[in-house]
Amino acid sequence: MNNRFEGKVALVVGGANADESHLLGFAGLSALEIARSGGKIIIGDIDDEAGNRSVDKMKKAGLTAKYVHMDVTSESDWSATVEMTLSLYGRLDIMIMAAGIPDRGETIDTTEVDKWRQVMDVTNLGMFLGTRAVVGPMRKNGGGSIVLISSMMAKVVRDQANAYATSRAGMTHFARSAAVQYGPDNIRVNTVLPGWTLTPFTSNAFDAEWMERLAKRVPLRRVADASDIAGPILFLASDEAKYVTGSELLADGGVTGWIGPMD
């Protein structure tokens, strides 16, 4: 264990899958590594089973963590979670926002209005409410780091998943706007743009055959795992990135920089 996050308090939203005996999510692994590196963790999610299981295992390992059920589209949930964090730990230094919802297989013609709104609310309303909720405590601390988890789909598009891609592009521009607004408070706001990654979020779609097909489209020739994305998240959350704000960190194995196989 190192002391990279010693004394830091982090709220990781969408980080329920932090149990190494199960398939890890990259937000969950980020939460686990922050705790292992001396930080204190609040995990907010709607997957209570995974969240409670993960936090129980972290506590048994001597780490400091707590789980809270949290709907990112609820202003009151954000307020209550931040208040609880301050009550428990007295400060808040890091917020990682990884909540999301897919619209796989949907085109513009077939996407229902309610589905479009749901995707936008979870991603865009969630990041807005979350940022607004955490900047006050961060300002009092003399600064902080907000890491929004976007997607490489903010840079490229498919003929489907229009709501998802649009919402993720919105995250990157919001992060730039927030970075400018809160820069004088020493609050950094950045985005991580993951590529194809095997996580609980994608596991239903990514069988072995599909992952093999995807890997041929990746210059690094493999689909990412949670550790490939947690590394960039942890960098931006840490003081190692103390002069980095308003940035987009692509972690896509080179997909968006390549025209793809020609055969």
Oligomeric status? single chain
Note the gap between the termini: 46 Å
Q: Number of helix segments?
A: 7
Q: Regarding CATH, which class?
A: Alpha Beta
Which consecutive residue ranges, at least 5 long each, have pLDDT under 50? none
Helix content: 40-55%
Percent range for β-strand residues: 5-15%
Topology:
Elements: E1 9-13, H1 26-36, E2 40-45, H2 48-60, E3 64-69, H3 75-89, E4 94-97, H4 113-141, E5 144-149, H5 162-182, E6 187-194, H6 208-215, H7 226-237, E7 248-251
Parallel strand pairs: 1-2, 1-4, 2-3, 4-5, 5-6, 6-7
Helix pairs in contact: 1-7, 3-4, 4-5
Summarize this entry quickly.
The protein has 263 residues and is an alpha/beta fold. 41% of the residues lie in helices and 15% in strands. The mean pLDDT is 95.
